[in-house]
Design a protein that fits this description.
The complex is a heterodimer of chains A (about 325) and B (about 240).
Chain A lengths: L2 H25 L2 H26 L7 H19 L3 H24 L4 H20 L7 E2 L2 E2 L13 E2 L2 E5 L2 H24 L1 H11 L1 H6 L4 H27 L9 H14 L5 H18 L6 H15 L4 H11 L1
Antiparallel strand pairs in A: 1-2, 3-4
Chain B lengths: L3 E12 L2 E12 L3 E5 L6 H8 L7 E6 L2 E2 L5 H7 L1 E4 L11 H10 L4 H15 L14 H14 L4 E5 L7 H15 L3 E5 L3 H7 L2 E6 L2 E7 H6 L1 H8 L6
Parallel strand pairs in B: 3-8, 3-9, 6-7, 7-8
Antiparallel strand pairs in B: 1-2, 1-4, 4-5, 9-10
Helix pairs in contact in B: 3-4, 3-5, 4-5, 6-7
Classes of the chains: A mainly alpha (about 325), B alpha/beta (about 240).
């Protein structure tokens, strides 16, 4: 992580994101704007795994657990309170706290990487099955019916803090989601350049050496996992807002494997990679959804395999290498 | 024993039927330099792993400046002031030499001072030229120095060196010996080494281990003349 290039790249990316955020609503129609809003929300989700896995070296197969938890927390709280500010905050805090608890058992129990993958995947699938079976009147939290596999429709969407009657319009929502994306991206950059972040990267490189230098590996991993959980929760909240709807699919195997594909395709160990990977795959998914020649999941599987075998570093690191050689 | 930096009492570890370290009573004074020798499998590296908390003893105690650190976590022991250069250099292959020193020094120093320490150590181990190169691409001899420098940057009170001269040329060995003597002016050290030339260059007191136990402890001259030690090294079944 040689200092100057690291910052130069991040400043360029940030500038590009700000330009897109400001420029796009002027040139695209309502439908395109909604599309880009969900893309940006998913980019935040991709960043959360890119951070946890790419920098923390924690192979989390169940990042969707925190995403879904964020979405459901928002849904339940917003319905009960009739406004979105507290719901948004809780959608960050609840997944982070849950990640901290889960992480405590995994890291302080010294589980190996393989078990970590298995456990996190199981957790998201448990949530998937749990939420699927909450159909009927019996399953409600306060005023909010969970509705099982049907999902929770017509959620109250984001309002201006302190003014529940003033809802954000699509352009405002887009600005907000883009602002969140920029904040998360820049925040992770700053974090990774800090003492804490440099230790996190060192842990990924060699855990034993970090311990021998006096760094508590378990604590660092726990913090990374917790931060990642909170960011995924934020993405979940924005996603639930986008469609004013949340269903158990946020916890599904399709969802969780998608996040992994974004990160693999874009490039592990970068922050720009997961964003690029997420955009490309989301665009593809939309395009493939409009035709019936090939099944989307099948195409995704093929792309995933192709990347693992042919471009294992992912797009961004491979391009960087080419650029350095040229 | 109040001036002892390190003391082990009846320290043992058993792997199944093998007792890799057997009832070791070992005392090291402040600023002492001790060489630890013995044939392969004598338990030297295992002893180091016990001292740094990488392995938990099945019996016995470890005292560091009078504090019982038996069974403490590796990072907690490191924080107390024990640093180790492992037998096979344990490094961050994707990171630069400078980053290694930075990470080590930064734990106990503010950012400004850390940079100064890193530069100073780079100078001292003679690696300023490769400071920004990835460690994974360095030769074994250079990697040894990177690890030594990383340990030094953390400025631990007790430094354990496991085969610091392995894989080095004659000149490099001489330079390492000089460095060890220099470190010893301010720090206590335990050095495990097979290269007897190197041991001769630095040793005053030598502890010989054999089959997990301490065989003898004496000055270098007397060790070299000791018949039992010679038998152990030549493979005769001596042992005490």
């Amino acid at each position: 992580m040689s200092g100057r290039r690291w910052w130069k790249g991040s400043i360029l990316t940030t500038a590009a994101m700000v330009l897109i955020a400001l420029g796009v609503p002027q040139v695209v129609d309502q439908f395109g704007l909604l599309q880009l809003t969900v893309f940006a929300a998913m980019c935040i989700l991709a960043l959360s795994l890119g951070f946890v896995w790419g920098y923390g070296g924690i192979l989390c197969f169940g990042q969707s657990a925190f995403f879904g938890l964020g979405a459901y927390t928002y849904a339940v709280t917003a319905i009960n309170l009739g406004e979105s500010t507290v719901a948004t905050l809780l959608a960050l805090v609840v997944p982070a706290v849950f990640a901290a608890l889960l992480g405590y058992f995994m890291f302080y129990g010294r589980l190996s990487d393989v078990y970590l993958g298995v456990i996190t995947l199981s957790v998201t699938l448990i949530f998937f099955n749990l939420m699927n079976s909450t159909a009927g009147d019996a399953y409600r939290v306060g005023k909010a019916r969970l509705n099982g596999f049907n999902g929770m429709p017509s959620l109250p969407t984001l309002n201006v803090p302190g003014d529940p009657g003033r809802l954000l319009d699509p352009a405002e929502t887009f600005y907000l989601v883009m602002a969140c994306l920029v904040i998360v991206y820049v925040g992770l950059h700053v974090l990774l350049a800090s003492h804490f972040g440099r230790v996190v990267v060192a842990i990924r490189e060699n855990e034993a050496r970090c311990e021998l230098l006096g760094y508590d590996v378990r604590l660092h991993k726990l913090l990374v996992f917790t931060i990642g959980g909170g960011i995924a929760g934020l993405a979940g909240c924005l996603f639930a807002n986008w469609g004013a709807f949340v269903s158990p699919n946020v916890f599904s195997l399709t969802m969780t494997s998608q996040i992994i594909i974004w990160v693999i395709v874009g490039g592990l160990g970068t922050l720009l990679g997961p964003i690029i990977g997420c955009l490309i795959m989301q665009y593809l998914a939309t395009a493939l959804g409009t035709q019936q020649l090939a099944n989307t999941s099948l195409v995704f599987g093929v792309i995933f395999l192709a990347f693992v075998l042919l471009v294992p570093r992912g797009i961004v690191p491979s391009l960087r290498r080419l650029a350095l050689r040229a | 024993m109040s001036d002892a930096i390190l003391q082990t009492v009846g320290l043992s570890i058993r792997f199944g039927g093998v007792e890799a370290v057997r009832h070791v009573n070992f005392t090291l004074a402040e600023r002492e330099l001790r060489c630890l020798i013995g044939p392969n499998g004598a338990g030297k590296s295992t002893l180091f792993k016990l001292l740094t908390g990488q392995l938990k003893p099945t019996a016995g105690r470890i005292l560091f400046r009078g504090h019982d650190i038996t069974g403490h976590h590796t990072h907690a022991i490191a924080r107390r002031g024990i640093g180790i250069k492992t037998q096979v250099p344990s490094l961050f292959d994707g990171l630069t030499v400078h980053e290694h020193l930075w990470l080590s020094a930064r734990r106990t120093h503010p950012a400004e001072r850390t940079r100064a320490i890193a530069d100073e150590i780079l100078e001292r181990i003679g690696l300023t030229a490769v400071a920004n190169g990835a460690v994974g691409q360095l030769s074994h001899g250079l990697r040894q120095w990177v690890e030594l420098g990383t340990v030094l940057a953390g400025n631990p009170d007790l430094i354990l060196l496991d085969e610091p001269a392995a894989g080095m040329t004659h000149d490099e060995v001489a330079r390492t010996a000089e460095l060890v003597r220099e470190i010893n002016r301010t720090h206590a050290l335990i050095v495990v080494e097979h290269d007897m030339q190197f041991v001769k260059m630095i040793a005053r007191t030598v502890t010989v281990m054999h089959q997990g136990a301490v065989l003898v402890e004496d000055t270098m001259d007397r060790i070299l003349k000791n018949a039992t030690v010679r038998d152990v090294y030549l493979g005769k079944h001596g042992g005490s």
